């Protein structure tokens, strides 16, 4: 199938498919006319990549996962280890965002939001106020 059909079946734009080929995540066959020729196996790999990326896996992590996906002798412990590292990273980011939210909430709560020039938000951003 051509790239347009592979795009429709995988849900990825042709530009993304070309990028994945460029960085070596996918290698399409070539038709007699030299055009890319995708198989259903390629579409499955593209869907796998799409789901992996949507869960936050980096391109390099996707490369590892894709390698394991194609390895029928793989150990699930290898896959789990990659997923556990990603989960810990997500948990760290959530904690960081929660802290940012709490700090900003404190600044907003302490700002009167009136006609006076005093503003704890500006002071906090400038480093002269008390930021929790």
Structure overview:
By secondary structure, the chain is mainly alpha-helical. The chain contains six helices and two strands, in the order ααββαααα. A hairpin with a 5-residue loop joins strand 1 (29-30) and strand 2 (36-37).
Uncertain runs are none
* Total count of strands: 2
What value does the average pLDDT take? 93
Elements, N to C (H/E): HHEEHHHH
How far is the first residue's CA from the last residue's CA? 57 Å
> How big is the Rg?
24 Å
- Count of helical stretches: 6
Neighbour order of strands in the largest sheet: 1-2
Structural class: mainly alpha
What helical percentage do the residues reach? 55-70%
Topology:
Elements lengths: L2 H8 L3 H9 L6 E2 L5 E2 L2 H15 L4 H11 L6 H35 L9 H7 L6
Antiparallel strand pairs: 1-2
In short:
The protein has helices at residues 3-10, 14-22, 40-54, 59-69, 76-110, 120-126, and strands spanning 29-30, 36-37.
Structural descriptors:
elongated; 3% strand; mainly alpha; 2 strands; two-stranded antiparallel ribbon
């Amino acid at each position: 199938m051509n790239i347009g059909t592979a795009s429709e079946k995988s849900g990825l734009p042709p530009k993304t498919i070309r990028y994945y080929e460029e960085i070596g995540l996918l290698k399409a066959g070539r038709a007699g006319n030299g055009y890319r020729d995708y198989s259903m196996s390629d579409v499955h790999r593209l869907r796998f990549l799409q789901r992996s990326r949507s869960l936050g896996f980096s391109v390099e992590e996707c490369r590892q996962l894709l390698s394991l996906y194609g390895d029928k002798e793989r150990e699930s412990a290898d896959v789990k280890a990659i997923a556990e590292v990603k989960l810990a990273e997500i948990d760290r980011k959530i904690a960081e965002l929660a802290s940012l939210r709490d700090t900003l909430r404190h600044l907003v709560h302490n700002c009167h939001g009136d006609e006076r020039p005093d503003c704890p938000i500006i002071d906090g951003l400038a480093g002269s106020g008390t930021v929790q």
